[in-house]
Please model this.
Amino acid sequence: VGFGIAELQVKRCALQLASALEFMGAKGLVHRDVKPENVLLLDLECRRVKLTDFGLSCPQGTAIEALPENLPYTAPELCRLGPSARLPAQPSLDAWALGVLLFCVLTGFFPWHTAADRHYRDFERWHRSPRVRPRPPHWGRFTYEAREMLRGLLDPDPIRRSPASVAMAHVKCPWLEPQEPGAARADRTLLGSSHCR
Model:
């Protein structure tokens, strides 16, 4: 028993969201607000999913500033911006947000509160040296293939970050390891009360 959405439904969502983001990228647009609140599920099996709320969308390359509040979906390059600094909007921002969203709906929890907190720093160290650094404990639910997909989407370097379409290439692989009884309770306490909404 897990606390996220069933893997099959998550994969259906991932296919449709990645396709929507790929389409936007082909049109030269960046969504900039990919999160569960902006995803409409039109049926319980997630066969019809819509990405909504294009209020922050802009053409690629538009100089953007950080939003007043850093959310779990905010990419690290935006978290590091100073008060008056700007960076060009790129599809890599949407790929990051999709990676956080997939983690969240599969587990029921955010991987971190912001891409600057202790949980993120643990992830970043592991991401840099996966053979040397211990894997953050809340990443143990994922199969090797899913970890690699998420590590690509959540690469701290936006230039090396995988595009959102990488999710489409991984849907035939299992994403979650079988859960042992009692393991879910341990995972639930890892990130406090940061439930996905």
Residues 182-197 have pLDDT under 50 and may be disordered.
